[in-house]
Amino acid sequence: MADKHGSGLRYLALLVVLLWPAVSAADFLNPSFEGTIQNVTPYPDTFPQYWRLRNTDHTLFGSQVTNAWKTDGVYAAGLYSRLRKTFAVGDSQSLWQSVDLTGMSGVMFDVRLASYGNSAFPTFMNFEAQVLVDNAVLWTQTVDGAYLNQQVDVSGMSGTHTVELRIMATVAGVSQAANWTQWDNMRLVKMPEEKIIDAKVTVVPRVIVRKGGGKWFKWEDRWVTCFIELPEGYSVKDIDSTTVTLEGVSAHVGKDRWAKAESNFWNTRDWDWDRAKERMVKFDREAVEAALTTTGKVTVTVTGKLPNHVKFVGTDTIRVFEKCGHKHGGRCSDNCIRRFALDKWDDKCGDEGGKKCDGKK
Ligand SMILES: [Ca+2]
Ligand SMILES: [Ca+2]
Questions:
Q1: Same structural domain for residues 220 and 74?
Q2: Residue 18 exposed, middle or buried by CB count within 10 Å (0-12, 13-18, 19+)
């Protein structure tokens, strides 16, 4: 007897070693419900290890591993209404687990809805199978049958979240049969790798004078404009301007025709006559000025997204001045600014800090 007891302990130790460290942090523990525990609530049922129970109501629901249906291994997790029990709308029971969803796009699973125990009621009814993430219902099914490779979207949910499998009464009544939801093969789907391509970007104006010192072309005061060209094989028509940023500032999207998120005749043209179209996006000038923390020659980065997980990145070098033109009440002369814009900066226009930029010194 003693020997048998000892080998049982060794077996348990082996199980712990096998189940615990083999899974990475960003994964379900016991995703296929093959690991089971007994002699715990809801004893005497066999319960899936590492999963936790919510809304325990033993008079109405049962929760246990089951081998009646599965898509992976030997067991699935079952949540079911017990025979001849009265239920009210919203009564529910869940299995849940906290999972790190960083870098994941989806939670995948297989589930079956089925009726047992009364041939007069052969199909699943009165209840709903649900998948919740952080108490939000993201997937439901009420119709008898098996549903494989189901997926809920968790892209953008970084950090730890609660993934919950639930059975819930959709009407009030008495369970004439056991309505089972059987869950198996929980999987996390990784976000596809992002491909990064180089874009050619041209930022206008070429000179930005912070603190409102550079009001030389009145009509464009409000905007910093960017023209984006993409390498061969990619179309600027695919650029969605809601994804475009300059130094972290989002592109302006609005009512004007050129300001639509999607590409159109007013924002996508061959602006520089090189037979390749550019996408034009504009940024709020004050927001850009606030984002530019250094002066002198400044390299700014423009990024945006294309379909199929492609990201474009481009840089341009502009000149940024804190203020300039002491002799002109804080304004730069048009002539001097044009020299900046044409990259024909010279000593006559003062230093990079723009302390002398009236062209007269
Ligand atoms: Ca399984
Ligand atoms: Ca062009």
A1: no
A2: exposed
Q: Is residue 9 part of a domain?
A: no
What does DSSP assign to residue 251? P
pLDDT in tens, 328-353: 444 455 555 555 545 544 444 544 44
pLDDT in tens, 4-30: 454 555 555 555 444 444 444 469 999
Of 139, 158, 190, which residue sits at a domain end?
190
The structure tokens listed for 100 are 């790190």
Ligand nearest to the CA of 268: 2
Q: Ligand 2 centre and the CA of 337: distance in Å? A: 25
| Residue 270 CA to ligand 2 centre (angstroms) | 4
Distance between CA atoms of 186 and 308, rounded to whole angstroms?
Answer: 25
Question: What is the structure's pLDDT at 4?
Answer: 45
Residue 16 lies in a domain: no
Inform me whether the pLDDT recorded for 201 exceeds 50: yes
Nearest ligand by distance to the CA of 228: 2
Domain limits for position 310? 195-349
Task: Kindly state whether residue 10 falls inside one of the protein's structural domains.
Answer: no
CA dihedral of 82, 84, 87, 91, whole degrees rounded to 10? 0
Same domain, 157 and 45: yes
User: Considering only CA atoms, which of 195, 197, 194, 202 is closest in space to residue 315?
Assistant: 202
Final residue in a domain of this structure, among 169, 190, 211 = 190
Residue range 128-156: mean pLDDT, rounded: 97
